[in-house]
Amino acid sequence: MFKLSEIKELIKLVDQTSVHELEIENEGERLLIRKPGKTEVVNMHTAPVVPTYTPAAPQQAPQAAPTAAEAAPAPQPAAKSDNLHQIVSPMVGTFYQASSPDAAPYVNVGDRVNEKTVVCILEAMKLMNELEAEVRGEIVEILVDNGQLVEFGQPLFLVKPE
User: Fold this and answer.
1) What is the pLDDT of residues 38-59, one digit of tens each?
2) How many angstroms from the chain centroid is the CA of residue 26?
3) Strand spans (E) along the chain
């Protein structure tokens, strides 16, 4: 089975090169990484099962009509500007701002970060994965809540690069 750390490293390598597609088969397992603008894991399965990963729109359960307060538009992230960098989730998982419930958050709005600053933890398949900023700058906005499920490629932080 492919290790999560190996998959993450392969995604980074594909993203940093002109390669648009990488397919690896190993002992009946297949991993396909395709880059149509952004790198995404498209298809991973073990022979003979052939599931295909296609990001689907989130489904909402039927709900009663919203009250006036609920009908108000949701707050929008800080004004999106071409000069802000998005730190995005490299995987599907649960977002945690700190290493434990009683610990201080890794970063807060206004904090300065560099390429190696850990900004959060993403829990995926019972593994805790530290996410580094990979950019030097100031945290402008945290776009998700602690404990929230996040999708691959979902923006987590806005950073004003230096």
Assistant:
1) 444 444 444 444 444 444 555 5
2) 26
3) 21-26, 29-34, 40-46, 85-88, 93-96, 112-113, 118-124, 127-132, 137-142, 149-150, 155-161
Residue 23, CB-side half-sphere exposure with 13 Å CA sphere? 5
How many other C-beta atoms lie within 10 A of the C-beta of residue 155? Answer: 17
Compute the C-alpha angle 31/35/41, nearest 5°: 35
Q: What is the DSSP letter of 38?
A: S
Q: What is the pLDDT of residues 79-98, one digit of tens each?
A: 455 689 999 999 999 999 99
- Residue 78 half-sphere exposure, CB side, CA atoms within 13 Å? 19
Contact 23, 31 (CB under 8 A): yes
| Gap between the Cα atoms of 135 and 87, Å rounded | 9
Tokens encoding 159: 């950073």
